[in-house]
Amino acid sequence: MAQAQTQAETTPLDYSPSFSLKANNDSLATIVYRSRATSSLSYEALETLSKTAQLRNHAESITGVMLYDESCFFQWLEGPPENLSRVMESIRRDQRHEDVEILSERPITARMFGGWDMKLATRSTQGGIWAHDVIFPKLETVRELRRHPDLAPTLLVTLAPKQRPAVDHFDPTRMVSDLLHAAVIPEIFARHIAPPVAAPQIINDAAVLRLAELLLASDADAAVSMIHEAYTSQDSLLGLFKSLLEPAARRLGDFSVEQICSDYDVTIGLCHLQTAIRLLGSEMMSPLCAGTATPAVLVVPAPGELHSIGAALNSEAMWQQGWAPHSEFPANDRELQQILKDGWFDVLDLSLSTSLEREHWLPRMATTIDLARRASQNPDLIVIADGRSFFQSDEAAALVGADAGNNSATDITRDILNVMPKK
Ligand SMILES: Cc1cc2nc3c(=O)[nH]c(=O)nc-3n(C[C@H](O)[C@H](O)[C@H](O)COP(=O)(O)O)c2cc1C
């Protein structure tokens, strides 16, 4: 023990987080790490550790959760960056664990574990000795952590206390919407992502999550190499859209719904994704010569939509299949109408965000489509709606007056041909 102490004292300990420390008193950050207990901890030892941590965390305005499983610790800490840095230095020095590996550290806009000075989560409370103060994680969460420890930042969030909106009356619409976002939509996506429709599924959910996290951390270089590696192993650009890039964009949107990041962070993440795709352009994008008998498609993000990655992917997918789409970025409905007046188009491909649900934009999208049809030289203009709001929802496409919705850039040409009149 004395020997271990000496070693700890001589180890450089100045822990400095990679995010910048802001002067702003309100700024918050999170650190997630994992480590291994130096010896298996008794319940009493775990309780002592946990209670000491809670006392100090309370004084330091730090909240979070610590999961103990099979001699491994996973901990999410959140609070003011300076305090986090201080506490993290103590934690690193602690002889009760070793191999401390930081899995994520970044600024956050809101606490996920507000009110929890440091909740202990473990399945080994044996008889509930102090189980009233411990949470019992689901077996599948613990199994996932054992399989993919690097997913801890996301998996720990599933343990967070449900944040209730401050409403003073019963609001069933809000309740249904919360339920949809918290349980139904993630479940639908989880089911959708697992079995691929057309592409070979060699990219899994863990990779999707990893890419989304790299984008969120603005690690464009790592994102580029990851996409590059995936492309090399899959050897199909279109397959990559469906199995990795689009799910990663949706995962970014989930992060914002889960309040792990802001909508602004999603926009920045999407910019990195678009840059990453462009950087790889010369190597992986080899457009075929445009065929002569392909439809004239106008690809645009819906006027006012900042997230243009859906339009970029669709356009690229069409080029890959020998079509020659025309891409524009109209600032408003009038500009879009002008483009449709000036040129002949068979199809208008109009996209909302690939990451975020934009239900509240649907009425506006309906107006855009109505005005576009009226302005179009082609009286039989076909309109395809895409984006997360239309992902697996034919009703949403019908609601805005589109002829069809599109689920993935991989399927865009097929979706268009399905609704084009047969000659
Ligand atoms: C796995 C693990 C997690 C810990 N988490 C915290 C924590 O969240 N907050 C905290 O103040 N101390 C935590 N500690 C205890 C600290 O390592 C340390 O003992 C305590 O903060 C006192 O710090 P000091 O020895 O620098 O005075 C943890 C220790 C271990 C082994």
Description of the molecule:
It is a single chain. The chain has 423 residues and is α/β, with parallel strands linked by helices. It has 3 domains: 2-157, Alpha-Beta Plaits (2-Layer Sandwich); 174-284, Methyltransferase, Methionine Synthase (B12-binding Domains), Chain A, domain 1; 297-419, Cobalamin-binding domain (Rossmann fold, 3-Layer(aba) Sandwich), CATH 3.40.50. It is built from 15 helices and 11 strands. It has helices spanning 2-10, 43-60, 81-93, 139-147, 152-157, 172-193, 205-216, 220-234, 237-257, 263-284, 309-320, 333-342, 362-375, 394-399, 412-419; strands at residues 28-37, 63-69, 72-79, 97-108, 119-122, 134-135, 297-301, 326-327, 347-351, 382-386, 404-406. Helix 8 (220-234) crosses helix 10 (263-284) and helix 12 (333-342) runs parallel beside helix 13. Bound molecules: flavin mononucleotide (FMN). Flavin mononucleotide binds next to helix 2, strand 3 and helix 3. Flavin mononucleotide is lined by residues 35, 49, 52-53, 56-57, 66, 73, 75, 77, 87, 90-91, 94, 96-97, 118.
CATH architecture label of the largest domain = 2-Layer Sandwich
**Helix run count:** 15
If you average the pLDDT, what whole number results? 79
Shape: elongated
Stretches where pLDDT is under 50 for at least 5 consecutive residues are 1-14, 19-23, 164-202, 285-292
C-alpha-based Rg, rounded: 25 Å
SSE pattern, N- to C-terminal: HEHEEHEEEHHHHHHHEHEHEHEHEH
CATH topology of the largest domain: Alpha-Beta Plaits
As a percent range, the share of strand residues is 5-15%
Helix content: 40-55%
**What is the number of E strands?**
11
The computed structural class is: alpha/beta
Strand order of the largest sheet: 4-1-3-2-5-6
Bound molecules: flavin mononucleotide
CATH class of the largest domain: Alpha Beta
End-to-end distance: 83 Å
| Major beta-sheet overview | 6 strands, mixed
Assembly type of the chains comes to: single chain
